[in-house]
Amino acid sequence: MQHNNKDVSKETKSVWAGEKDYLVHGATQVPVVHSVSYGYDDIDEWFEVAIGKRKGHIYGRNTNPTVEAFEEKVRILEGAKSATSFSTGMAAISNSLLTVLKPGDRVVTIKDTYGGTNKIFSEFLPRLNIDVYCCDTTNHEQIKQEIAKGCTLLYLESPTNPTVKITDIEQLAKEAHKVGALVFVDNTFATPLLQNPLELGADLVIHSATKFLGGHADALGGIVCSNDRDLVEKIYHYREINGATLDPMAAYLLLRGMKTLHLRINQQCESAMKIARFLQAQDVVEEVFYPGLETHVNHHIAKKQMKQFGGMLSFAVKGGIDSVREFLPKLKLANRAANLGAVETTVGPARTTSHVECTPEERAALGIPEGLVRYSVGIENCDDLIDDLKQAFRYITDKE
Ligand SMILES: *Cc1c(COP(=O)(O)O)cnc(C)c1O
């Protein structure tokens, strides 16, 4: 089977792609290679592998066969020429940023990036004399104006965490390239099956593999893909020396999880749409955020750049955090935890999950109500999830 064949669908690729070269002894599954180092009796061969003239592995911080198989699968799904992986999603983000940025550079980004990413922008980069401008996420005119002032990097995330805002990747990438800036996009919420930022003009696509790619909340990892081999090579080199390497066991779990990515995502998207509509019809619910809803501010952009609208939604209940305290513990079919994209439904208030590092004032400035609940739809039967929400909402006492 030709796994790179364009005629083969992404669904089939998530099952087969990237694995063939890593199978040994007739095994049908990629082995977990725990070995830290790789031995060579022939000194010349060792030298050639070490300088990259010949394929092979030297030391586990640099490369590993299990890790490579995982990188290959994601690379093929993103339709990219090159990919490199990391110990976590945050390592993917920080290593990529620090590879391309230097003192005096300017970054244009959005206010709604993932909480950890936001910390890098507000705390770590300014320390290195790198200027970061955070635009209103859905204000495309403002983002364009800031890009036009000149920047080294445009950093986007779409949909965002936790209010699932959407930015027009194609339109903004075009503007960034006019001023010679690189474009990085965090594609964690969409996955390669729903959105391909490289096709929309991005130079680098970033994933926290911990979330939907792995899908089982049992392994941390991150990955970046690009059609610019030199860019990935530079990022790989930074990561190799910096030491934020993906563990082979985690790589195996992520690889295994990805075989069912299409099944999970399809179920999660379908259920998220139904649950969003259910929530909209509830008296206790003040506001529902889901890009699939026609009422979502950037529904038209989501429709243009995504195949489906994803498995993440959020909603605010009347009565704020007091109401959240009442109903959230009553949910029976949800983990109350700081994770998302798993097979089990996972819920949490934004103030204890994605934006726990922010002050209430900072959250308010980001448009995150204190009573906002992030709801990552799992693969359970959708009617069961709706019934579960219904029974939990009965515990919200009348606050009128
Ligand atoms: C979780 C997440 C990250 C960070 O990934 P880790 O694997 O937890 O380090 C980055 N971006 C987004 C959008 C995320 O949801």
What does this structure look like?
This protein has helices at 10-16, 43-50, 65-78, 89-100, 115-127, 140-148, 169-178, 191-194, 229-242, 248-258, 261-280, 299-305, 320-327, 360-365, 382-393, and strands at 82-86, 106-110, 131-135, 153-157, 182-186, 204-208, 222-226, 285-289, 312-317, 335-336, 346-349, 372-376. It has 400 residues and is α/β, with parallel strands linked by helices. It has 2 domains: 10-258, Type I PLP-dependent aspartate aminotransferase-like (Major domain) (Aspartate Aminotransferase, domain 2, 3-Layer(aba) Sandwich); 261-399, Aspartate Aminotransferase, domain 1, CATH 3.90.1150. Strand 5 (182-186), helix 8 and strand 6 (204-208) form a beta-alpha-beta unit. Helix 3 packs parallel to helix 10 (248-258) and helix 4 packs across helix 9 (229-242). The radius of gyration is 22 Å and the shape is globular. The structure holds pyridoxal-5'-phosphate. The site of pyridoxal-5'-phosphate has 15 residues, from helix 4.
